[in-house]
Amino acid sequence: MDQPSVEAIQALIDKQAISEVLAGYCRAIDRRDADLMRSLYWEDAFDDHAVFAGSIDEFIAYSFPFLEGVVTHHSISNILVDLTGPGEAFSECYFSAFHDFPADESRLERTVGGRYLDLHERRGGEWRIKNRTLVIDWYAERPGTSVWDAGRYANLPNRGAPWPDDPLYRLHPRLATSDAGGAGVRREAR
Fold this sequence. Notes:
The chain is α+β, with helices and mostly antiparallel strands. The protein has helices spanning 6-31, 34-40, 56-66, 168-171, and strands spanning 41-48, 53-54, 71-85, 88-101, 108-123, 126-143, 177-180, 183-186. The strands form 2 sheets. It has a 6-stranded mixed beta sheet. Strands 7-8 form a two-stranded antiparallel sheet. Helix 1 packs antiparallel against helix 2. The N and C termini lie far apart (38 Å).
């Protein structure tokens, strides 16, 4: 059996690194983890997010406050990565994003499905997003049925939450936070 070439092995390593960037986005947006989000995009990156277009810092400033109090769950699938040149790649991955919006009189659940079309660059051996275009293929809305302050799921000790309150930042040895005057302080970033 022929051994894979060095180039083929490097291509697998690169595709895995890009896939981890894509999965990291889901963690960053659901946990509202600005440091992680910034680590996934190059500083000069551009994000066209359907209802927003701008830099990563502008995206964080727009999306994190918009999602305040909203329960979200983003997931990705069908990841296709095309290594288009030395240090460049294009990826298409499908996403599904659930949003549970609180409301004064009733809740709203919105699920959005589509694709992230990303141009990635490798700089200094690290892959990050250079340009993202979000494509919405479908969405559904319905009245929400979640009751978070009573019943079965009230007061869960391990309920998902934004950074630094999510159990991830307490349990993961490299992401653990300590409480310094009420503000979570990361021991180690990504």
